[in-house]
Amino acid sequence: MRDDWTADVIVVGAGSAGSVVARRLADAGRRVLVVEAGPHRAEPAVDDPARMHELWDSPLDWGYRTVPQQEAQGRLLHLPRGRVVGGSHALNAMIWVRGNPADYDRWAALGNEGWSWQDVQPLFARADGLDGGGPGMLDVLTGYEPDPVQRSIVEAARQTGLPFNPDYNGARQEGVSFMQFTIREGRRLTTAAAYLAPVVGRGVTLVPEAVVRRLLFDGRRCVGVEWIREGAVERCHADEVVVCAGAIGSPVLLLRSGIGDADTLGGAVVHLPGVGRNLQDHWLVPVIASTDRPPTLTRGLPATQSHLFWRSRPGTRLPDLQPLHFGVPLYEPWMDGPPHGISLMAGLVRPESRGEVRLSSHSAWDAPVIDPRVLSAQADVDALGVAVRLCQEIVGAPELRRTWGARELYPGPLAKSADGLRSYVRQSVVTYHHQAGTCKMGVDDEAVVDPQLRVHGVDGLRIADASIMPDVPTGNTNAPSIMIGEKAADLLAG
Ligand SMILES: Cc1cc2nc3c(=O)[nH]c(=O)nc-3n(C[C@H](O)[C@H](O)[C@H](O)COP(=O)(O)OP(=O)(O)OC[C@H]3O[C@@H](n4cnc5c(N)ncnc54)[C@H](O)[C@@H]3O)c2cc1C
């Protein structure tokens, strides 16, 4: 066994948040060791913003499947997650959404001092430079020329009465907008490229293709990690360990290391019943239309370029819907249709359903049990139904009929009645890829980390990634994960 690695801080996972933590700590003079399960190499399909779908179920995807989802006709849902230096930012759609300021004010109101919008807004600015206070570490692409079909979708949305919002990361979230992307010169820009790569070999030692199988303890102090690389066991000891393995990987690593519900684990180093619970995700239901000719797709941009934030019910304080619009038909396996068309993915971003992640065994090679309990809350079915109706209205608006000859294919007649709509939602719901909340931050009995991201009851161990979100924010989760990385680095650097 190799046991001669040394570091001040070990970061587990070189994804969206882990890359930020490593960079900032290296800049602060710490010796950082980053251990990542996936490879570190150039991948044309990662670089090209138009090739996201090719990465799913590839060797760079953990390729998780849920257990059969009772409220979704027993289907096993695919949950892609990045297994590569870059993490899920390496196979995501690159959409940059900070979330609604009220999301963070709520985190703070739950007892998480230091996490209000006022506190976190400067951390977002450090990453994206969107507030005019100087450049950020990432480029956020705005003001590009969208595909003609995207302009038509936005116009169609306006025809249904939705306001155009030129900047959903600005003063107001609601309305229909063109997306902002983490793209530089036509290539995907991950935090691994922008933050981590410049400091590898200069304060950071990167150990790729190494699966961390457990955390090492001396009593209640975490003193290092143990991983497997090329079939051999290796270890490193350090003053601090920061787990950034993501909303699935982080609770799994804690559970394998004996941190979790003592009854389920059959004894535990630390009894923390919340580990793996509170799993939240956003959900999508497709509304698909044929077009009379193939929409042109611009090289260097994803096939989705516009989205909207809206409310499912009048009187709701925050937007809870976020449909996003693709210039291609995204058929489910049971669907059939012509090769070209458009998809308006009816999105729910304030779900009530909660699920969990559990171990299937203690082996690092066995996939965990993932049960998001999608649609277990009736409110989610209802809200997705409203989102589908909204997308149907947009597809049927004069602009899309006139310029593209758009004709609705799905749900089409399947959702004529209210019952039909509900069963279509159950038959076709898919993840929006925003799993969060499984090691939630807080001060209650279910909390796993405190507001300084320290694991309750353990010394020398923090978590910094999407798993610590008490509630999933109103919008895509990459920017918030990166903000969490920035915050963790501040807390660690002191
Ligand atoms: C297909 C897809 C599309 C998405 N689209 C968008 C989008 O357009 N915009 C947006 O804002 N969000 C999007 N998201 C969500 C967003 O990418 C994630 O919320 C974000 O990347 C989470 O960051 P993280 O740091 O928590 O985890 P990750 O970035 O997933 O990083 C976790 C890292 O830990 C590593 N790891 C896990 N376990 C171990 C272990 N035991 N040992 C060693 N390493 C380990 C993983 O390999 C991975 O590299 C998308 C996600 C997916 C999957």
What does the main sheet amount to?
7 strands, antiparallel
Rounded radius of gyration (Å): 22 Å
Structural class comes to alpha/beta
* Bound ligand species: flavin-adenine dinucleotide
Q: Would you count the extended β strands for me?
A: 24
Report strand %.
15-25%
Shape verdict: globular
Written overview of the protein:
A hairpin with a 2-residue loop joins strand 7 and strand 8. Helices cover 26% and strands 20% of the residues. It is globular and about 70 Å long. The two termini are 34 Å apart. The protein is of the alpha/beta class and 494 residues long. The chain folds into 2 domains: 1-142 and 187-280 and 434-493, FAD/NAD(P)-binding domain; 144-179 and 282-354 and 368-432, Cholesterol Oxidase, domain 2, CATH 3.30.410.40. The relative contact order is 0.19. The chain has helices at residues 16-27, 44-47, 52-55, 101-109, 117-128, 148-159, 191-196, 246-256, 262-265, 378-395, 398-404, 418-428, 478-493, and strands at 2-6, 9-12, 32-35, 64-65, 78-79, 175-178, 183-184, 187-188, 204-207, 211-218, 221-229, 232-237, 240-243, 259-260, 270-271, 283-290, 304-309, 324-326, 341-348, 356-358, 369-371, 407-410, 430-431, 461-463. Strands 6, 16, 17, 18, 19, 22 and 23 form a 7-stranded antiparallel β-sheet that branches. Strands 9-3-2-13-24 form a 5-stranded parallel β-sheet, covered by helices on one side. A 4-stranded mixed β-sheet has the order 1-12-11-10. The structure holds flavin-adenine dinucleotide (FAD). Residues 12-18, 35-38, 80-83, 87-89, 91-95, 97, 211-212, 244-247, 249, 253, 433-434, 465-466, 476-479, 481 line the site of flavin-adenine dinucleotide. Substrate binds at residue 432.
